[in-house]
């Protein structure tokens, strides 16, 4: 096991690789104190002579490299007070935060560290075609509120959320002052999962300040095209994968071995999977009916089917919804992450349901574990067909703006989709008909394509604070962004 002091030194060295020697003025906090981020911090964050770190993980490469992508350079706008200062001084605290926080809270750090190492990055703003804003805002929010780490910050009271000392507006204004060319594309690489969280951590303040400051070509990364989460219209949000974790205890177990066999030999996947077996496990989502017209209890009749493992639980973390019934669950026990991963990796089909909003982590999990996604409804394609209805906290993005990541390289139409209204009436019959119409050859083709794109859905393994095992998610996200820029440019030219 690596000693904590060595681990901390490694993290400081990785921060130093960013070469951010910006002398930041005092950032005023509402509690009355001020913090100066000085270059002396960078001088202190040096690696001991006895410690070595690889300069770049070998798998951080631009996928399907082409001249246009290779020639497009980006510059990370310095935000040391919510990146390097935190990493250099509180790495142990950060390790525990990201270890216990919501999976998706890790994305901000995976993105920051991977973008630092990306071959298209330049440290000279004069050479940049694109400017990127990163920030560890979820972690920073918890630090400044001096509260114990909780998995869902949006569930705390308004009083708890306003007692912190970090002035989001002042920080947002400082970010705008660091913008050197307002005419070029700017990308906010800070995804979040809730309208309230977006406001509390300061993401919405940053977006508003950039727009007010004259940055008109503004984009954002998001787990879905949700203006309430990211603060921008759907066509300016690049959909990215949710975050799937690989528990350390899964190594050298049937979970890891099953996934490894699938990766190495997808053609013989039937040796590790139960043919035509369907898996689903999820939370009831108490507010989903009133917020989006999504009733997950429609899967409850499937719990007794012989070729299906369907589990709908009530975690009790959400307040009871006015429109939800009380006994629409199959179990009160949540699967461990290891067991969930194993069941996905050993099932042929995995149900992908709606929730409070159109997206969830289950699609990314299915792609990672090679379980063919069987989608219920058309919400992921940006539509809202009955029983879907416009509700709270999410966006009907439209067919031109699906919530599916990497649509420029992955043909999502190959995967089966069933009508949500018909599924509600007779779920077992609808699934059996859909599965029977899907040939073995097509199933093998889908799994082969999933295996080909699998690394694009993995940000990394381990804790993002100190991991050196990066996936290919960020390089593919960068490629998706460049494709979106190209498409926007074509639309602009066609309207001239």
Quick recap:
The protein has 20 helices and 14 strands. It has helices at residues 4-16, 39-44, 67-71, 84-89, 91-100, 107-117, 137-145, 158-161, 168-177, 195-201, 203-212, 227-230, 254-264, 288-292, 337-345, 362-369, 420-425, 427-436, 440-453, 473-494, and strands spanning 27-28, 34-35, 74-76, 130-133, 186-188, 218-222, 237-239, 274-283, 308-313, 347-352, 372-376, 417-418, 460-461, 469-470. Residues 313-334 are annotated as: Disordered.
What's the helix count?
Answer: 20
**Topology, number of strands:** 14
Rounded radius of gyration (Å): 23 Å
Structural class: alpha/beta
Q: What number of structural domains do the residues give?
A: 2
Please give the share of residues in helix.
25-40%
Largest sheet: 5 strands, parallel
Strand order of the largest sheet: 3-4-5-6-7
Let me know the average pLDDT.
81
Low-confidence parts lasting 5 or more residues at pLDDT below 50? 16-65, 148-164, 250-270, 321-327
Instruction: Sum up the overall morphology in one term.
Output: globular
Percent strand equals 5-15%
CA-CA gap between termini: 61 Å
